[in-house]
Amino acid sequence: MTEAAARRVPGTPCWVSLMVHDMAATQDFYGALFGWEFRPGPQQLGPYVRALLGGAEVAGIGQLPPDRQLPIAWTPYLAAEDVDVTAESVRHCGGTVGVGPLDAGEAGRMAIASDPVGAVFGLWQAASHLGMAVTGVPGSVVWNELVTRETASVAKFYQAVFGYTEEAVVSADFDHLALCLADRPVASVQGVGHALPRDRGSHWMTYFETGDVDEAVERVADLGGHVVRPPREGSHGRVATVADPEGARFALVASRED
Fold first, then answer.
1. For residue 208, what are the β-bridge partners?
2. Which residues form the VOC domain (predicted)?
3. d(Cα 159, Cα 183) in Å, to the nearest integer?
């Protein structure tokens, strides 16, 4: 599914960003894996570039301050009509706001928050930068899923803040919910019980579309990343979980046409 950049309904995932220690090496990795090119973005939080696929913006990569020992992880940004109001709602509903709200130049206004179980996500109030200009084509984001111990309590948080409705996902994973806006699934929550990694806790997983999962997994390994979970058949296509050289995990999926 391709789409021109447009102002998203509040609560819709609209961007993904990764903060790393070595920006040059990270750009080399993703450039070789997905064919991304890069151009400078807002520098309010330090050096930052936007990744482009065929000239369309698909993701951001920023430099972590040397003194910050934060987990290296892809972070989804959810669209907000008013970041300040949404950030207050996050706090009121039991979440935490760790960064912002602050202006990202003329691009928009942002905050970085975490839900009551510790999963980190961003908030984005678009100005000149509307977010991902293309999705669902190889090298771009196709889905975002919250991986947590159990869905019930944390899903209530996202419902309260963003107005999602829930829809049970019929799959082999019994504790699996879709988060919907206007009856359209925009993200999902999967409860994995004791299979939740102790070293990571609850986290958002970004899925990138690829033409051939097995080939992409081999390329990840050749480029200095590693395979977390080998290719397998999932409910929407063939999928694998991998990590880049700094340890940021993400999923590769070759989506099936439903």
1. 141, 252
2. 12-126, 140-255
3. 13
Query: Would you write out the chain's pLDDT as a tens digit for each of its 258 residues?
Result: 334 445 789 999 999 999 999 999 999 999 999 999 999 988 877 899 999 999 999 999 999 987 777 789 999 999 999 999 999 999 999 999 999 999 988 999 999 999 999 999 999 999 998 899 999 899 999 999 999 999 988 999 999 999 999 887 766 567 899 999 999 999 999 999 888 888 788 999 999 999 999 999 999 999 999 999 999 998 778 999 999 999 999 999 998 765
The CATH number given to 13-126 is: 3.10.180.10
> According to DSSP H, which parts of the chain are helical?
23-34, 83-92, 151-162, 213-222
**Residue whose entry in the numeric block shows the structure tokens 């709602």:** 89
CA gap 135, 145 in Å, rounded? 15
Query: Would you tell me which CATH number, out of the four given (3.40.50.10800, 3.90.550.10, 2.30.40.10, 3.10.180.10), belongs to the domain 141-255?
Result: 3.10.180.10
What's the CA gap between 9 and 179, in Å, rounded? 13
Would you list the domain boundaries of the chain?
13-126, 141-255
Q: What is the pTM of this model?
A: 0.93
For tokens 């939740």, name the residue: 196
**Angstrom distance (rounded) from CA 164 to CA 183:** 9
For the four alpha carbons of 190, 194, 196 and 201, in that order, the dihedral sign comes to positive
**19: buried, middle or exposed (CB in 10 Å: 19+, 13-18, 0-12)?**
buried
